Amino acid sequence: TFGTGEIWGRCARDLICLGSVCTEGSFVQATYESPMPFGSFKFDGVLGLALPTMSQGNAFNLMERMGTSAALQRGLFSVFMSDSDAETSEITFGRVKKDHLASEVFWEDIARDSGLWEVRVRDIHVGGQPQGLCSSDCFAAVDTGTSALAGPPAVIASITQALGVERDCSNFARLPKLGFSIGGMLLNLEPRDYVDQVNGQCELAFMSLDVPPPRGPLFVLGIPFLQRFYTVYDHERRRVGFGVARHAGAGIAAEGLLVQVGEVAAPPRPQGPLTTLLASARSFLHTAV
Q1: Residues forming a β-bridge with 180
Q2: In 15, 143, 150, 215, which residue has its Cα 20 to 30 A from 116's Cα atom?
Q3: Which residue has the higher pLDDT, 67 or 148?
């Protein structure tokens, strides 16, 4: 089962190849897929890239198998998420692609062994100001299968109030940055990252997610976050790397998006034309990242 939908099938074992790099592993041959969401999209299957705790067993975990067989140069993968039709999203196994980065990568260790790529969030910042929303431990899963930013209902309500987005977009140009404090760094999203503009209407790209203990409460940093930040998933060292993504023609000042906590972000440089947000599949598949 997934966040949305389910499949049934038979277990099988075979060579699993990424191009010419192969390893033997186990997988499920689907004999049934639920109409939602699988009937809405054209793809051949689901490649889960979570940590081994979430797998049926180590034989079902691709990165575990690749690491055991030393098939990759490095036991990691990285994700670049397109934000326009001018470029293509990309996942790279075994290395970090510098041409997708507008900053250096910094690393944060996995916070707990849930199977998700979870990091600890120290606080949420609005316009550079901490909001005190993480008095106890806050955890965030970095997830390519989630089309929005998600979090505990009470926290999402507080963020929504602090941002004050007008539905008619009348204050869009004055909206503040929204930042996540992770590992001593502040990862800032700009209004165009966290606001969906459709037919002259503005809506926050947030959803409430009530995950009960012990896995919750939990934030999910989905596609809006991943379009702004290039992410690296280090399976060997159990850590996640973050860097500002370099997009075609964006003209983004990386120093304003990734700053040390306590520093004042430099004013942004002039930007190029706004790129349109990726028309992503609005599914909620916890397949992994």
Answers
A1: 124, 187
A2: 15
A3: 148
